[in-house]
Structures are given as structure tokens and as C-alpha cells.
Amino acid sequence: MNRVISRFAPSPTGRLHLGHAFSAIRAHDLARAAGGHFLLRIEDIDPGRTRDAHIDGIIADLAWLGLGWDGAIVRQSARLPLYAAALDRLKVAGLVYPCFCTRAEIAASAAAPHGDEAPVYPGTCRRLDPAIGRARMEREPHAWRIAMDDAMVRAGPLDWWDATTGTVSAVPGAQGDVVLARKDAPVSYHLAVTIDDAAQGVTDIVRGVDLFAATHVHRLLQALLDLPTPRYHHHPLLTGTDGRRLAKRDGAPALADLRAAGMDGAALAEQLRHGQFSVGIFPEKA
Ligand code: GLU
To answer: Looking at ligand 1, which atom is closest to the CA of residue 214?
Structure first.
């Protein structure tokens, strides 16, 4: 049997809050219970929003919670050539296309988004004449999007195993032609995370159910790039006393604040493990 390898993969674009702690503890404990490895990967592909201070904060927060990781910390910013090679492979396969649209153009032309999801891209640049596309690439910033319909045909039916729901059929099409390389960054979350989880031999991905939709896309990318499919554990999210998800925008307390206030991190981790929440948070109702 494979050794269990899990990971915590925060983006250093803000301070960690209790929801991150909950997720990190689950990933950590899954590996430790199986005698496996727990990895820390810093997802710092967003040059505009990454801050070194947040990386330092993540390291201090995990130490405070009593969560140790194995091996060196991996930073995605050091792995850009790997992502470029995967994108090249998809270019050669004719499964990605350059997109010149601005956010405003997409918002104006796309179907109305549901809730806080990004609008589904209407495919404008997929229909561009290739010669025009090539000429525009010379002088205009562009993203690279997956040609979702073609990619799904190429991959055929796909599924994955999820600890919460059992076997899930992948339906990435609902998300449209997602971005694989951004205008302002040479890779997107979807592509980088899929490549790194495979490259690091991650067997079990533990993350919040808010990323469940993304897994449909990741499963497709695994198929297109001949990568293995890990097991997934999408856990419920924590909510505040008002029933709303803990997120930075909701003013959830940062772990750094609790740390600075003298709270015992290891004791807090134990509470989170046992579903005791003394800080006004609850697991999200199903
Ligand atoms: N970097 C992502 C985030 O901080 C999480 C990635 C993942 O767990 O797949 O939201």
C-alpha cells in the first residue's frame, strides 16, 4: 500500500484564520495517523498579493498549533518552469487558447454568476481566428484558457473518490473554459495545484468543501497530463456565530491575533480536533 502523503497548501495573501487551522489539522492528522508524511506548500503564484510576512506568519501559526511538517517547504514561485512545460503540452495538444478579454468584458458578456462564483467565461476568444490570435499575442497581454469541451472529449468520462461523498463523476464543463495561465501570473491555481500534488506524490488531498467544484477541473487536468488521481477529503467549513463562513472578509480572528493574545495553540488545536469551539465558531451545517 502507498504511504499516505497529505499537504497544507496556503496562499500567502493574508493571515491564516481558524478555518485554515481546521484544515491544516485534518491534513496533518490524516498523515500522522497513517504513519505518513505531511507537507507544507506555499502557493505563492500571485505576485501582486503574495507577502513574505504572510509566509512567516503561516510558519509561526503552524508551529504554535503544534503541527510539524516533513521535508522542505515547497514554494510554487520556484516551480514556474514545470507549469510552463505542462501548459506547452496542452498547447501542442490544441486544448488551450489565448484569451485577451478583460475582467470587465467578461463580466459584461457572461451569464449572470451564481452567488460569489466567478462568471463562466462565454468563450469569446475561443472563436478568434488563429492568425488574429497569434498577431494579438505579440502585443497584448493574454491568459491561457482550456478549451473545455474539446478537453472533456479528449479525456472521456472521469471520476474520483471522495471521503465525504464516495465516487464522484467529474463534470468540469459547468465551469467553462477556466484559466490555466493568468495575464498577470504565468500559471493559475488549477494548473499549479494539480501539477504539484502529483509531483509531490500527494495521496490524500484534505481541503474545504469550498474547493469541491475545483476538483472537477483538477481531475480533468490529471487525465490530460497523465497524472495520478489522489483521494479527496473535502471537509465542512467553519462558520461564525452568525452562520456565515469564516473568511478574511468576515472579520474572522486571525491565528496571529489569538497567538498574540496568549492563547495556547496546542490546546486550540485539540478543541478543533474534538469539535469543541470556544471561539464562537461552529462546523457549517450540511
Ligand atoms: N492555496 C489554496 C488556498 O489557500 C488551497 C489549495 C488547495 O488546498 O488545493 O485557498
So the answer is: 9
